[in-house]
Amino acid sequence: MTFADRFRPWHRRNAYLLLLFLAAHLITHAAAIFGADSQSAVMDIVRVVYRSPVIEIVLIALFVSQVCMGIALVIPRIRQSQKTAWSWVQIVSGIYLAVFILNHIFLGVLRGRTYEDVDTGFYFVAATMLSAPYNYGFIPYYFFAILALFSHLAAALHWAGRPRAVTLSLIALGAVVSALIVSAYGGLFYDILLPDAYERYMQNLF
Asked: Which of 24, 70, 78, 115 has the most CB atoms at less than 10 Å from its CB?
């Protein structure tokens, strides 16, 4: 058994726990399709659980450990001389998710809440997709993050022997879900007026 192989079962078990949170998180963002009030209502319910100090610390620890184990697993896969298309799907989506997760937690959400004193709810996300020129970076940034999540899951199912129709359908579903969520926050379905606090946040972002 290689060094990386020791992490594989833990990476998988960790993923099962994180998927519970990620499913609730995606449902919250998908609620934005129906309006800011709908998204906020769902988020208020979900936050009762994951904004608990203990649970939030555990979640952050799970995400950071998942990224660390993922790095340990992806290095030997990159070094493989023979790589299939699914190998590349797993590698690229995994690296993208690792960067996104660390950036989203520490430079996004925690910075917004701790240093900028803004609520990281609907308008926090919408501000990044409505404020030019930053939206040209944030729109693909969020779109590919959701797509990478679905693609990484599809790759895991592929290696577990699931049918090609299932894995490809999961990637297609990820693209659709991502497009709908990004479109909602980008103001495609209804007009969004950003509060002044979020306008200032974007002006001081970089």
From this structure: 70
